[in-house]
Design a protein that fits this description.
222 residues, three-stranded mixed β-sheet, two-stranded antiparallel sheet, 9 helices
Protein backbone atom coordinates (compact mmCIF):
# COMPACT_ATOMS: atom_id res chain seq x y z
CA UNK A 1 0.00 0.00 0.00
CA UNK A 2 1.29 3.55 -0.68
CA UNK A 3 1.01 4.37 3.03
CA UNK A 4 3.18 1.37 3.93
CA UNK A 5 0.62 0.08 6.46
CA UNK A 6 0.23 -3.25 4.71
CA UNK A 7 -2.49 -5.91 4.93
CA UNK A 8 -2.60 -9.15 6.93
CA UNK A 9 -1.15 -11.19 4.06
CA UNK A 10 1.91 -8.99 3.62
CA UNK A 11 4.17 -6.80 5.71
CA UNK A 12 3.77 -3.40 7.30
CA UNK A 13 6.85 -1.35 6.36
CA UNK A 14 5.67 2.10 7.45
CA UNK A 15 8.14 3.82 9.74
CA UNK A 16 10.66 0.98 9.77
CA UNK A 17 14.34 2.05 9.87
CA UNK A 18 15.78 2.34 6.39
CA UNK A 19 18.74 0.18 7.40
CA UNK A 20 16.40 -2.58 8.54
CA UNK A 21 14.40 -2.48 5.30
CA UNK A 22 17.60 -2.72 3.24
CA UNK A 23 18.85 -5.65 5.32
CA UNK A 24 15.58 -7.53 4.85
CA UNK A 25 15.71 -6.93 1.09
CA UNK A 26 19.25 -8.33 1.16
CA UNK A 27 18.01 -11.37 3.10
CA UNK A 28 15.29 -12.02 0.53
CA UNK A 29 17.82 -11.61 -2.28
CA UNK A 30 20.32 -14.00 -0.71
CA UNK A 31 17.78 -16.69 0.26
CA UNK A 32 18.08 -15.94 3.98
CA UNK A 33 14.42 -14.99 4.32
CA UNK A 34 11.68 -17.27 3.06
CA UNK A 35 8.35 -18.50 4.42
CA UNK A 36 7.51 -21.53 6.53
CA UNK A 37 4.60 -21.97 4.11
CA UNK A 38 5.92 -22.43 0.54
CA UNK A 39 2.54 -21.37 -0.89
CA UNK A 40 2.76 -17.93 0.75
CA UNK A 41 2.59 -15.87 -2.42
CA UNK A 42 3.51 -12.52 -0.88
CA UNK A 43 6.86 -13.86 0.34
CA UNK A 44 7.63 -15.44 -3.02
CA UNK A 45 6.88 -12.10 -4.66
CA UNK A 46 9.25 -10.30 -2.30
CA UNK A 47 12.03 -12.76 -3.13
CA UNK A 48 11.58 -12.05 -6.84
CA UNK A 49 11.46 -8.29 -6.25
CA UNK A 50 14.57 -8.30 -4.06
CA UNK A 51 16.55 -10.30 -6.59
CA UNK A 52 15.75 -7.79 -9.35
CA UNK A 53 15.56 -4.39 -7.66
CA UNK A 54 18.52 -2.05 -8.17
CA UNK A 55 20.48 -0.74 -5.18
CA UNK A 56 19.39 2.82 -5.94
CA UNK A 57 15.71 1.86 -6.10
CA UNK A 58 15.98 -0.16 -2.90
CA UNK A 59 17.52 2.81 -1.08
CA UNK A 60 14.85 5.15 -2.43
CA UNK A 61 12.03 2.87 -1.31
CA UNK A 62 13.61 2.35 2.12
CA UNK A 63 14.05 6.09 2.58
CA UNK A 64 10.43 6.76 1.60
CA UNK A 65 8.76 4.16 3.83
CA UNK A 66 11.01 4.96 6.80
CA UNK A 67 9.94 8.61 6.52
CA UNK A 68 6.20 7.87 6.73
CA UNK A 69 4.70 8.16 10.20
CA UNK A 70 2.68 5.10 11.29
CA UNK A 71 -0.97 5.60 12.24
CA UNK A 72 -3.46 3.37 14.08
CA UNK A 73 -4.44 0.65 11.59
CA UNK A 74 -5.48 -2.33 13.71
CA UNK A 75 -8.42 -2.28 16.14
CA UNK A 76 -8.02 -5.09 18.67
CA UNK A 77 -11.17 -6.60 20.23
CA UNK A 78 -11.16 -9.30 22.92
CA UNK A 79 -14.01 -11.75 22.31
CA UNK A 80 -15.28 -15.26 23.06
CA UNK A 81 -16.94 -15.61 19.66
CA UNK A 82 -16.05 -14.20 16.25
CA UNK A 83 -17.67 -13.88 12.83
CA UNK A 84 -17.26 -16.92 10.60
CA UNK A 85 -14.56 -16.29 8.01
CA UNK A 86 -13.10 -17.81 4.88
CA UNK A 87 -9.69 -17.31 3.24
CA UNK A 88 -9.71 -15.05 0.21
CA UNK A 89 -6.73 -13.51 -1.54
CA UNK A 90 -4.35 -14.17 1.33
CA UNK A 91 -6.54 -12.73 4.09
CA UNK A 92 -9.70 -13.66 5.95
CA UNK A 93 -13.09 -12.30 4.90
CA UNK A 94 -16.26 -12.40 7.00
CA UNK A 95 -18.93 -14.77 5.68
CA UNK A 96 -22.12 -12.71 5.53
CA UNK A 97 -25.08 -14.28 7.30
CA UNK A 98 -23.09 -17.13 8.84
CA UNK A 99 -23.40 -17.77 12.60
CA UNK A 100 -20.55 -16.71 14.87
CA UNK A 101 -18.11 -19.32 16.15
CA UNK A 102 -15.84 -19.75 19.21
CA UNK A 103 -12.53 -17.96 18.85
CA UNK A 104 -10.50 -20.63 20.64
CA UNK A 105 -6.80 -19.72 20.77
CA UNK A 106 -6.77 -17.78 17.54
CA UNK A 107 -6.36 -14.28 16.22
CA UNK A 108 -8.94 -13.46 13.56
CA UNK A 109 -7.97 -10.36 11.57
CA UNK A 110 -10.43 -9.04 9.01
CA UNK A 111 -10.99 -5.79 7.10
CA UNK A 112 -13.13 -3.12 8.73
CA UNK A 113 -14.68 -2.61 5.28
CA UNK A 114 -13.87 -5.26 2.69
CA UNK A 115 -14.85 -3.15 -0.31
CA UNK A 116 -12.62 -0.27 0.75
CA UNK A 117 -9.78 -2.65 1.57
CA UNK A 118 -9.95 -4.20 -1.90
CA UNK A 119 -9.82 -0.68 -3.34
CA UNK A 120 -6.60 -0.12 -1.33
CA UNK A 121 -8.20 2.69 0.63
CA UNK A 122 -5.45 4.15 2.82
CA UNK A 123 -7.95 5.12 5.53
CA UNK A 124 -9.66 1.73 5.94
CA UNK A 125 -7.84 -0.58 8.36
CA UNK A 126 -8.53 -3.88 10.10
CA UNK A 127 -10.08 -5.36 13.21
CA UNK A 128 -8.31 -8.18 15.04
CA UNK A 129 -10.37 -10.40 17.34
CA UNK A 130 -8.30 -12.00 20.11
CA UNK A 131 -9.21 -14.31 23.03
CA UNK A 132 -10.37 -12.64 26.21
CA UNK A 133 -7.51 -12.04 28.63
CA UNK A 134 -4.86 -12.33 25.94
CA UNK A 135 -3.86 -8.65 26.01
CA UNK A 136 -3.06 -8.76 29.73
CA UNK A 137 -1.22 -12.06 29.33
CA UNK A 138 0.71 -10.66 26.40
CA UNK A 139 1.69 -7.57 28.34
CA UNK A 140 3.14 -9.77 31.07
CA UNK A 141 5.21 -11.75 28.58
CA UNK A 142 6.37 -8.67 26.66
CA UNK A 143 7.29 -6.56 29.69
CA UNK A 144 8.68 -9.22 32.07
CA UNK A 145 9.68 -12.18 29.93
CA UNK A 146 7.17 -14.45 31.65
CA UNK A 147 9.54 -16.04 34.17
CA UNK A 148 12.02 -17.12 31.53
CA UNK A 149 9.56 -18.07 28.78
CA UNK A 150 11.11 -15.30 26.68
CA UNK A 151 12.95 -12.03 27.36
CA UNK A 152 11.60 -8.50 27.74
CA UNK A 153 10.90 -7.12 24.27
CA UNK A 154 11.86 -3.62 25.45
CA UNK A 155 15.51 -4.67 25.70
CA UNK A 156 15.90 -4.66 21.91
CA UNK A 157 12.80 -2.88 20.60
CA UNK A 158 12.98 0.15 22.89
CA UNK A 159 11.06 1.19 26.02
CA UNK A 160 7.95 2.05 24.00
CA UNK A 161 8.43 -0.88 21.57
CA UNK A 162 8.70 1.60 18.71
CA UNK A 163 12.18 0.54 17.68
CA UNK A 164 15.74 1.27 18.68
CA UNK A 165 18.37 2.12 16.06
CA UNK A 166 17.89 -0.34 13.21
CA UNK A 167 15.77 -2.67 15.36
CA UNK A 168 12.17 -2.32 14.11
CA UNK A 169 9.10 -1.12 15.94
CA UNK A 170 6.58 -3.82 16.89
CA UNK A 171 3.87 -1.64 18.46
CA UNK A 172 0.53 -1.42 16.67
CA UNK A 173 1.41 -3.75 13.82
CA UNK A 174 -0.66 -6.56 12.34
CA UNK A 175 -0.89 -9.59 14.65
CA UNK A 176 -1.14 -11.85 11.59
CA UNK A 177 2.13 -10.46 10.26
CA UNK A 178 3.90 -10.71 13.61
CA UNK A 179 2.73 -14.28 14.14
CA UNK A 180 4.18 -15.33 10.80
CA UNK A 181 7.52 -13.73 11.61
CA UNK A 182 7.76 -15.49 14.98
CA UNK A 183 6.98 -18.85 13.36
CA UNK A 184 9.39 -18.21 10.46
CA UNK A 185 12.16 -17.45 12.92
CA UNK A 186 11.34 -20.54 14.99
CA UNK A 187 11.44 -22.79 11.91
CA UNK A 188 14.56 -21.24 10.40
CA UNK A 189 12.78 -19.81 7.38
CA UNK A 190 14.24 -16.46 8.45
CA UNK A 191 18.01 -16.62 8.93
CA UNK A 192 19.25 -13.08 8.38
CA UNK A 193 21.27 -11.10 10.94
CA UNK A 194 18.25 -9.65 12.73
CA UNK A 195 16.54 -13.05 12.83
CA UNK A 196 19.54 -14.47 14.68
CA UNK A 197 18.88 -12.03 17.53
CA UNK A 198 15.30 -13.28 17.79
CA UNK A 199 15.90 -17.04 17.77
CA UNK A 200 16.40 -17.44 21.52
CA UNK A 201 13.56 -15.07 22.58
CA UNK A 202 11.01 -17.01 20.49
CA UNK A 203 12.41 -20.53 20.94
CA UNK A 204 10.11 -21.57 23.80
CA UNK A 205 6.96 -19.79 22.65
CA UNK A 206 3.93 -21.98 21.98
CA UNK A 207 0.68 -21.03 20.29
CA UNK A 208 -0.91 -19.60 23.46
CA UNK A 209 2.08 -17.34 24.15
CA UNK A 210 2.33 -16.19 20.54
CA UNK A 211 -1.37 -15.29 20.43
CA UNK A 212 -1.06 -13.32 23.66
CA UNK A 213 2.09 -11.46 22.62
CA UNK A 214 0.79 -10.36 19.22
CA UNK A 215 -2.59 -9.40 20.71
CA UNK A 216 -0.89 -7.05 23.18
CA UNK A 217 1.55 -5.60 20.64
CA UNK A 218 -1.22 -4.97 18.09
CA UNK A 219 -3.27 -3.16 20.73
CA UNK A 220 -0.57 -0.51 21.26
CA UNK A 221 -0.32 2.85 19.55
CA UNK A 222 2.15 2.58 16.66
Amino acid sequence: MPNGQGRPENESVVGLPAGYILQELSDFKNDLRKSSEPRMGSVGLMVRIAKNVSDDDAKAAAAYFSSVKPKPWIRVVEADTVPATRPNGGMLNVVDGAPSEPIGQRVIEVPEDLELTELRDSNSGFVAYVPKGSIARGKELVTTGGNGKTIRCTICHGPDLKGLGNVPSIAGRSPSQMTRQIIDIQTGARNGPYAQLMKEPVRQLGNDEIVAIVAYLASLQP
